[in-house]
Amino acid sequence: MSKLEAIINKLKNIKALVENGVSIAIVDNKDRMEEMQRERLEKGINADGNPLKRNNASYPAYSNEYAKRRKSKGLQTQHPDLKVTGDFHEGITSQKVGKKKITVYSKDYKNDFLTRQYDGVFGFSPAQREQVKALMIPTIERVIKQELAA
To answer: Can you give the residue ranges of every domain in the chain?
Structure first.
């Protein structure tokens, strides 16, 4: 088989190469993607890029009394951030699902309650999706180049 034929055969498998690159990129960037979830929540933004708010709530994010308690603990009171003790945020982790997906959740016991109470707790906002692409593309390119060069 000629070198050109070998390259053509490798290019026929480009989809598998990309999937392999994505899989490796997820593992390589797992910690950063988990940190991105924490950063977004601290800003009070949901996965759609909108303000985080309790489902079907028509009242302010924090009552005056609760806002006072949060302030006394050094916590912000402008928007919900799902942070009181920090356990929920510290428990944020992720798991690769299949070759092309990552599932993010918190190991904290409040995970189920908070994800029912607030839409879009986990996931990437539109701006974060662009950041994730920027994180992953170099790894995907590297994997493809390595395979084509072999």
So the answer is: 3-149
Paired sense of beta strands 92-97 and 101-106, if any = antiparallel
pTM given for the model: 0.81
Q: Check residue 60 and give its pLDDT.
A: 74
**CA separation for the pair 149, 130 (Å, rounded):** 28
Return d(Cα 5, Cα 110) in angstroms, integer: 56
- What are the DSSP calls for 36-94, one per residue? HHHHHHHTTB-TTSSBP-BTT--S-SS-HHHHHHHHHTT---SS--S-SSSHHHHTEEE
3-state secondary structure of 107: coil
Strand partners, 54: 118
What confidence tier does 21 reach under pLDDT thresholds 50, 70, 90?
very high
Query: Are the beta carbons of 128 and 148 closer than 8 angstroms?
Result: no
pLDDT in tens, 101-146: 899 999 999 999 999 999 999 999 999 999 999 999 999 999 988 8
Q: Are 65 and 137 in contact (CB under 8 A)?
A: no
Residue written as token pair 């029912």:
116
